[in-house]
Design brief:
Strand 3, helix 2 (64-74) and strand 4 form a beta-alpha-beta unit. By secondary structure, the chain is an alpha/beta fold. Helix 1 runs parallel beside helix 2. The protein has one domain: Transcription Regulator spoIIAA. It is built from 4 helices and 5 strands. It has a 5-stranded mixed sheet. It is globular, with a radius of gyration of 13 Å.
Length: 121
């Protein structure tokens, strides 16, 4: 069931990896992170454009180590990473993850803005 939350989508001729974390909690988030890790690594790409949709999802202390681990693991494969649903305190968490992993992820409030940013060179 969680595999359905990771899919390749095409937007204006570019392939984007869409990862749907919406409304998931600890155990499911951790399982989905591992599925996303596999998708990123097995893609063979070194310039992935990735959307993480985290609307309605909260990063708890149980998943923070997994987020950090995954960010470092995926870094060599990701060209740009957008997070949709990052507001308020979540921006502070994303800043911390960016500092630890140097992934340079950018927050967005909606999918369309994230897609547009991802396809810009």
């Amino acid at each position: 069931m969680l595999h359905d939350r990771v899919e390749w989508i095409e937007y204006k001729g570019k392939q984007l990896l869409y990862c749907d974390y919406r409304n998931l909690y600890d155990d499911d988030v951790i399982r989905l992170i591992k599925i996303v890790d596999e998708a990123v690594i097995s893609s063979g790409h070194k310039d992935l454009l990735k959307i993480n949709d985290v609307r309605g999802q909260f990063a708890t202390s149980a998943i923070l180590p997994e987020i950090k681990r995954s960010s470092k693991l995926q870094k060599p494969y990701i060209k740009k990473s957008a997070y949709v649903g990052i507001t308020g305190v979540k921006k502070i968490l994303l800043d911390a993850i960016n500092r630890v992993s140097s992934i340079g992820a950018k927050p967005f409030t909606d999918i369309e803005s994230a897609k547009e940013w991802l396809i810009q060179d």
